[in-house]
Write a structure and sequence with these properties.
about 180 residues; alpha+beta; ADP-ribosylation fold; 2 domains; three-stranded antiparallel beta sheet; 7 helices; elongated
Length: about 180
């Protein structure tokens, strides 16, 4: 597979880490700092993601979370004080593609349906229980419903399941210094 160009927005401290060690890996401390009040909620889905990625078996032993990359420069968000956008050229086979609509479902602790009928059936199921998706996953008072929802998240990696969006992000396990083509501050 060829190399492709991707972009990632990172704290400028990442540049120091790249200079010192030649690579950058995601660190929970930085995730917590960036996500602040929502860190525990988001780390639940980040942990799920890291454990369920098709390339989880190839994860370096010192890595806990993937690094997000964008296939579109403008989708990395505007640079802001303390951050830089890194333009990388990465071997394509190292990138796991993520459908943003399905990922949004996961970050909302929601069900990823197979199709419209499956979504209607799931909605009826929750209505019968008198709960919503997030309560089923977060409270664990409804373990079967929660397991059904989190089980549907594996569809994140199933290209045959579509929610109608073509928007994607990518995930890599690390950033290597030699991949950097440009730094936008």
């Amino acid at each position: 597979m060829p190399d492709i160009t991707v972009w990632t927005k990172q704290n400028r401290a990442v540049l120091d880490q790249l200079d010192a060690s030649g690579r950058f890996i995601a660190d929970e401390r930085y995730i917590r700092r960036e996500l602040e009040d929502t860190a525990d909620i988001m780390l639940f889905v980040y942990r799920w993601l890291a454990d369920h990625m098709p390339s989880a078996g190839e994860k370096p032993s010192d890595v806990k979370y993937p690094v997000w990359v964008s296939f579109i420069k403008e989708a990395t968000m505007c640079p802001e004080d303390g951050f830089a956008v890194l333009e990388l050229v990465v071997p394509e086979e190292l990138i796991t593609r993520i459908d943003t609509a399905k990922w949004t479902r996961i970050t909302n602790y929601s069900y990823i349906p197979l199709n419209d009928e499956d979504e209607r059936e799931h909605t009826r199921y929750l209505e019968q229980l008198g709960i919503n998706n997030a309560d089923a996953v977060m409270t664990r008072f409804y373990p079967e419903a929660g397991d059904k929802i989190t089980g549907s998240w594996d569809r994140l990696f199933d290209g045959s399941v579509s929610l109608g969006s073509r928007s994607e992000y990518g995930l890599i396990w690390e950033v290597k210094k030699e991949w950097i083509q440009n730094v936008i501050r």
